[in-house]
Design brief:
The protein is mainly alpha-helical and 236 residues long. Helices cover 68% and strands 0% of the residues. The protein is built from eight helices and no strands. Helix 1 packs parallel to helix 7, helix 3 packs antiparallel against helix 4 and helix 4 packs antiparallel against helix 8. The longest helix is centred in the first third of the chain and has 29 residues.
Length: 236
C-alpha cells in the first residue's frame, strides 16, 4: 500500500476510533455501566459482580460478553469468506457494523439514558452494540494498522510514551515520528468519549446518541469502496 493510500486508511480508522469513544460513552453512561467494545472492562465488572463487590451488576457485563463473542465469531466467518471470494471484507464488515448500530438505535428509540439500573431495553440495546463491536474488533484486527486499533488505546499510549523523548525506546519507534499516529488515536478516542458524554448529559434519547455513530461508520465504509483492497494481514 502506497503512502497516500495508507494516509487515507489511517484517517478513516481514526474516525472509527472516535465512534468507539462515542459508543462506549453511551454504553457506560446511558445503558449500564457496561462496556461494548472494550471487553477487558466487562471481564472485570463480571468478576466484581459475582463477588458482590463494588455494587456492579454482573448481568449487563455477561450479556455484553456473550453478544460480543457472537459478533466476533460471525465477523471472522463472514470477513474470511469475503476475502476468499475476492470481495472487500473491510467494507462488508463496516456495513454490517453500521446496520447493527442502527438496530441498537431502533431498540433504544426514545429510551431515556439510565445509569446504574438498566432495564430490559437498555440491556437489549447494549447487546446489539456489543455484537456490532465484535464485528469492529475483528475488522480492525484484520487491518492491523500499527498504533490505531480503533477500539482501545492502552497499547497506543504505551507505544506513544515508550517511543517519545521521555521513553527514548527504539523498540517503540523512537526517532521515527511514529508517535504522531498514536497520539491522534488517543485524541480521537478522547474526543469521541467527550462527545458522547456531552450528549448524554444533554439528555438526548438513546436513538439520537447512536444514529450519528451508525451514519459515520457507514460513511467510512462507502468512502473506502473504491480504495485499494486490504490483505487482512496488516497494512502500512
Amino acid at each position: 500500500m502506497d503512502v497516500r493510500a495508507c494516509g487515507r486508511l489511517t484517517l478513516l480508522l481514526l474516525v472509527l476510533t472516535w465512534v468507539t469513544g462515542l459508543i462506549e460513552a453511551v454504553s457506560l453512561l446511558a445503558l449500564g455501566p457496561v462496556f461494548t467494545a472494550m471487553q477487558t472492562g466487562n471481564v472485570l465488572f463480571l468478576s466484581f459482580g459475582l463477588a458482590h463487590a463494588g455494587h456492579l451488576p454482573a448481568l449487563a457485563s455477561g450479556v455484553s460478553l456473550l453478544s460480543f463473542s457472537a459478533g466476533a465469531v460471525c465477523a471472522a466467518r463472514l470477513e474470511g469468506a469475503a476475502q476468499a471470494r475476492g470481495r472487500s471484507w473491510f467494507v462488508l464488515g463496516l456495513s454490517v457494523e453500521a446496520a447493527l448500530i442502527t438496530v441498537a438505535a431502533a431498540i433504544g428509540w426514545e429510551l431515556a439514558p439510565r445509569y446504574g439500573a438498566p432495564e430490559a431495553r437498555h440491556l437489549m440495546t447494549a447487546s446489539a452494540l456489543a455484537v456490532a463491536m465484535g464485528f469492529r474488533n475483528v475488522t480492525s484486527m484484520r487491518v492491523n494498522l500499527p498504533g490505531v486499533p480503533t477500539t482501545l488505546v492502552t497499547r497506543s499510549m504505551t507505544a506513544l510514551l515508550g517511543g517519545s523523548a521521555l521513553g527514548r525506546d527504539s523498540a517503540f519507534g523512537y526517532g521515527t515520528g511514529a508517535w504522531g499516529r498514536r497520539a491522534r488515536a488517543v485524541a480521537s478516542m478522547f474526543a469521541g468519549g467527550l462527545t458522547g458524554a456531552l450528549l448524554v448529559r444533554a439528555g438526548c434519547p438513546v436513538n439520537w446518541l447512536l444514529l450519528p455513530a451508525a451514519a459515520v461508520v457507514l460513511g467510512v465504509a462507502l468512502t473506502y469502496v473504491r480504495q485499494p483492497a486490504l490483505s487482512g494481514l496488516g497494512c502500512c
